[in-house]
Amino acid sequence: MRIAFTKCHGSGNDFALIDKRGLNLSDTEWGRIARTLCDRNGPVGADGLLLLGEGTGGAAFAQMVVNADGSIPETCLNGLRCTARAGFEALGIEAAAVRLKTSEAQVAHDPELAPGVYTVRTTVGPASTDPVAAGINLPAPVIEAPVPGLPSDRNFTAVAMPNPHLIAFVDKVDVAELTALGDWCEAGPDLLADRANVSFVELRPDGLYVHTYERGVGLTNACGTAMGAATHAAGLTGRIPFGAWITVYNPGGRVRVRAEGREGGDRVTIAGNATFEWDGEIEVDPATGEAGALTVTRRRDDEVAAWAAVRG
Hints:
Layout: E1 2-10, E2 13-19, H1 27-38, E3 48-54, E4 61-67, H2 77-91, E5 95-99, E6 104-110, E7 119-124, E8 157-160, E9 164-169, H3 175-186, E10 197-204, E11 207-214, E12 218-220, H4 224-236, E13 246-250, E14 253-259, E15 268-273, E16 275-284, E17 291-299, H5 301-311
């Protein structure tokens, strides 16, 4: 079948975005397509697949995410900004409730964070440190403490966004250490219910710097839920005040984040880019995942240049 898609990114976390309304494919078939389109040695290359779906109940539309390995996470907040933009453009709206895999989010078109940068605000929650929700097989929440059974002596905070995160605050990110720990979590140890996203976080004068090993993906330029989890964890541990907007940096760029804390229902709001780079069409066999010819139908060089100016 021939599939139309948009290559897009939020903070450098890049995706192939497909409007799946009207397409009747199984999760298994979407998994095959994701593995093909996300292959960095293939015709497209991406961290994941974003699927714009029909809304249900009070939600105007839905988002389904498929990781590069074919797994389906609870959500992806960098991707949600891109899916929200596609939903806004498809329905002619500027704000909506969005149905996610296990929860719901509020999204809105926001003023540009920089000239020419399409910006979306997303609000999700509640963030939770409940060990069951955070996917860690321990009897009590982990907040700024060593994790028994984890091959690291660092202090971590385990947070559900609702996908599971392990957050460690460090003086300086050691990418090799982060990768080794992420690989360990990716192997599916008994300590973790369904693997985990792992982030090392540096405190900055105006906010945080977050580098993440994403479950089902590996090291990423950015992970939206990780930036939200890190901000929530920073509030829990007194590093930042709840209710304040901060800048969160990552290898792919930056976003603005506000964690509300208990008084705000433990909600987390992120405002950041939803950059559309180019549009294309590709032949893919859902039964095998084999890809055919790729055609680029539109390039959005102005958006690419606008984001490049933000990164400097």
